[in-house]
From TrEMBL:
Entries under PROSITE patterns matching the protein: PPM_2
Database matches in Pfam families: PP2C_2 (PF13672)
Keywords: Membrane, Transmembrane, Transmembrane helix
Domain of life: Bacteria
InterPro entries according to UniProt: PP2C, PPM-type-like_dom_sf, PPM-type_phosphatase-like_dom
Disordered: annotated segments: 331-355
Name of this chain's protein: SpoIIE family protein phosphatase
Length: 355
């Protein structure tokens, strides 16, 4: 009798209201959707008042999953389009008593041997690999920008009075701004998606200690939520963990590279994805005409094959260089004086006052 195959991945998620939220309303929401080659996972942290925030987070995740399942094309383009669909859904419901509502959105698509991340706001993704914890996202917030500029340390950012001022969220304008990039995953990788109710309270070192324990995803998520509550539980807390046990080979499409210039408008990202699809089409056509030339002109098969192989290698190397590994955790920045007021923003739904 053959032993059952090891699953490609396992996941677990938990969300908790925290200890200081009034009324017991949880404005966080999470999604775990199984797919044939992996899964779609997401965390949303709503804003705009208790009822509005809860509604925004759940609307966004419902629209994200449905739009991804209904879409066609490459997974990166489908994921970016699904985030835009979630944005439009939140925006269209932000009327009447729900005016000004919005939500963060962090989505991870596991597709065979790759993970695609779509990021809007200040929820975070982390990767545990080989005993080291890598932070995969940068917060879209005012205090995060101050940390990047060296004006504030991570510890100061956790307690700053403007820590809840996010500079990007769903529901602020018709076209969403997001970061989208991919990375290859390995057997043994552990991925964490979480709201700021966890990342703003539990230190990276404590996170590493908990994530490194050999426990199932849901048990690990419980330990992380307990740690956030032990730290005061000032906000709703969500932890979603995905363990990669038997990922497949890397997909044939080019993974979107990680950029350093922050979130981009979705139409710009989709244009870039169409360019990547064209690159793959050129590779296929070059291989086809190389083989055709060898068959039609056999006496020239050696130079034709050599030229075709060289061109294919050049294109493949260029495609490979577009993929970047996850950036390591940033060290604490030096403290510099002279902090100003948080900048004005043209996104009407990006300011949240969390408890």
């Amino acid at each position: 009798m053959r032993a059952p195959a090891t699953p490609v991945l396992t996941s677990g998620l938990l969300t908790d209201v925290g200890r200081q939220r009034q009324g017991g309303v949880n404005q966080d929401a999470a999604l775990a959707l199984d797919l044939p080659q992996g899964g779609l996972y997401a965390v949303a942290d709503g804003m705009g008042g208790h009822a509005a925030g809860e509604l925004a987070a759940n609307l966004a995740l419902d629209a994200l999953s449905q739009a991804y399942l209904d879409a066609r094309g490459t997974p990166p383009a489908r994921l970016a389009g699904a985030v835009q669909a979630a944005n439009v859904t939140v925006l269209r419901h932000a009327v009447g008593e729900y005016v000004g509502m919005g939500t963060t959105l962090l989505a991870a698509l596991i597709d065979r041997g790759a993970a695609l991340l779509a990021h809007v706001g200040d929820s975070r993704a982390y990767l545990l690999r080989g005993g080291q914890l890598h932070r995969l996202t940068e917060d879209h917030s005012w205090v995060a920008e101050q940390v990047r500029l060296g004006h504030m340390t991570e510890d100061e950012a956790r307690d700053h009075q403007w820590r809840s001022v996010v500079s990007n969220a769903l529901g602020g304008e018709e076209r969403v701004r997001l970061e989208l990039y991919g990375l290859e995953v390995q057997a043994g990788d552990r991925l964490l998606l979480c709201s700021d109710g966890l990342s703003a309270v539990v230190t990276d070192q404590d996170m590493l200690t908990i994530l490194a324990r050999p426990l199932p995803p849901e048990a690990t998520a419980r330990l992380l939520i307990n740690a956030a509550n032990d730290g005061g539980g000032p906000d709703n807390i969500t932890a979603l963990i995905v363990d990669l046990q038997r990922p497949g080979r890397a997909p044939s499409y080019a993974l979107p590279p990680r950029r350093d210039d922050g979130p981009m408008y979705v139409d710009t990202l989709l244009s870039a994805q169409r360019g990547s699809s064209l690159h793959s089409y050129i590779l296929l056509m070059l291989a086809y005409f190389t083989l055709l030339g060898i068959m039609l002109v056999p006496e020239r098969r050696v130079p034709i094959g050599l030229i075709g192989t060289v061109l294919l290698l050049v294109l493949l190397v260029g495609q490979r260089l577009m993929r970047r590994p996850p950036a390591p955790l940033r060290p604490p920045s030096a403290v510099l004086p002279g902090l100003g007021q948080p900048p004005a923003t043209d996104n009407s739904a990006v300011t949240e006052t969390r408890a």
